[in-house]
Design brief:
There is one protein chain. It contains 9 helices and 4 strands. By secondary structure, the chain is of the alpha+beta class. It has a domain at 1-82 and 240-260. It has a 4-stranded antiparallel beta sheet, with helices on both faces. Helix 1 (53-74) crosses helix 7 (187-211), helix 2 (85-104) packs antiparallel against helix 4 and helix 7 (187-211) packs across helix 8 (216-233). Mean pLDDT is 79; it is low at 90-98.
Length: 260
């Protein structure tokens, strides 16, 4: 009998790959001298224990982010995308531009929110441009996809978080337009609630998309994420980069099977 496949996720780093499963994570990095280093550990927080549909999406985000401090403690040389000064500068710039659009633009609210959502992609594009991050992103997809499908996979994966882009843009735009109708004294709180609601809704929509890939609506919603993967966020990795991803995958699977 074949062994049951573990549902995996991952994150590319500028110098490695993080792979996480239901109960644990593993990260592999390549040092400048060529040395490969791997670390793994059980997760301290698991979103699977959260049952509320409204909280499941935010909980999954918290689960993914909660792993990062553990990765840095175990692998101090691991580089995180948000450590880049260029990315931080672009994030600050996006905040200022979005504020100007909302306060001074004559565009309709729906158009303002759509433009703001597209501008929010700038930090991700800056993180990928001119770095090895896109190649490690491709390596992550190839290693996980090959494990899941039992045959060599491509650098694009159907469950990549980039496919959240379409649902998130739509739900964020709708949520912020509605929040803009709230009285001014509570508008900031309304916007915060809209962001949480958009994340929760888009995560549920994304889950539906992965279960119904042949549906025309699902295909339309996944199109922006597909284009992001194809054109910006992934490139073909080198054998050495793929070795890093496979090392992280193997360590994560060992941990998961040991936990089972």
């Amino acid at each position: 009998m074949s062994e049951e496949k573990v549902r995996l996720g991952g994150m590319a780093l500028p110098n490695g790959v993080l792979v996480h499963g239901p109960s644990g994570w593993a990260c592999a990095i390549r040092h400048p001298d060529g040395r490969l280093e791997v670390a793994s550990a059980p997760k301290r927080f698991r979103a699977a224990n959260v049952r509320s549909p409204f909280l499941r999406g935010p909980a999954r985000l918290v689960e993914a982010l909660a792993v990062l401090p553990e990765v840095k403690r175990a692998l101090p040389a691991a580089m995180l995308p948000m450590q880049s000064r260029r990315v931080v500068s672009s994030m600050v710039g996006v905040v200022l531009v979005v504020r100007e659009i909302r306060e001074s633009s004559r565009l309709r609210p729906a158009a303002q929110e759509l433009i703001s959502g597209l501008l929010a992609l700038a930090p991700a594009v800056f993180a990928l441009r001119g770095s090895e991050l896109a190649a490690y992103h491709g390596a992550e997809h190839i290693s996980i996809g090959s494990y899941e499908h039992g045959k060599p996979a491509t650098r694009e994966h159907e469950r990549c978080g980039g496919h959240l882009l379409g649902p998130l843009l739509a739900t964020t735009a709708v949520g912020n337009v509605l929040a803009g109708l709230a009285p001014e004294r509570v508008r900031n709180q309304a916007r915060a609630a809209a962001q949480v609601g958009a994340l929760a809704a888009s995560t549920e929509i994304f889950g539906w998309m992965t279960r119904h890939p042949e549906n025309l609506v699902a295909q339309a919603l996944s199109k922006p994420g597909h284009e992001l993967q194809h054109r910006f966020s992934t490139v073909e990795p080198t054998p050495e980069q793929l070795e890093v991803a496979e090392a992280a995958l193997a360590a994560c699977l060992e941990l998961e099977h040991g936990a089972g």
